[in-house]
Amino acid sequence: MKHSFKLLLILLLLFLEHRDVNGQENWVFIETNQGVTIHSREVAGYAESEFKGTCIINQPIEVIGAVLEDIPSYTRWFLNCIQARKIPDKTSINLNFLLYIVVETPWPLWNRDVIYEARTRVDIPSGLIMVRGKALQDASVPIQKNHVRVTDSALEWVLERLDDSRTMVSFAKRINIGGSIGSYLSDAGCRKTIFESLLNLGRIASDPKYAALGKELKGKYGTDY
Question: Which pTM was predicted?
Fold first, then answer.
């Protein structure tokens, strides 16, 4: 009887490991390259897949958080980003705001821009920082000439403190880049963006200025990450 109960418990745990909190199928492994592990999964109701990259960056969690908070710096590390800024909004606060990004695309495609509603959660006891973004149909920034506005996209950053000098970073994203481009090219671009951006994030986080900005974050949200 005890053996049957243990077997049932093991089968239940194995089942749960292959499901996420929303009941969807779990991520499918694609590859690990240069320390970045890429997974993908289909999302019900969308032609495009969702991709996720994870890696360990040898920097404290507050340093990585400081890079993400430095919106103008995205042009230095977020793949093909040529402009990034917060949009002034009466409802914006430090943790929740509107984010405008312009991404350069190869000829003959037009550049893409997108307005994300970004929401941040800092969970000090758990050592977690989470940022979720959803593309909006927002006219607060006019569409530039020869640009396509992306209105169907979602992303999520999760920073998990491993110890005082290491952070597990996860970046998940799904995007329909619009225009006449099919889901295949949307997926290929999304996967490449996640991989390259995570590598670049690790490099830029070593800039000494983010150590100083990280200390400011600790002062703002608490010292026990």
Answer: 0.85
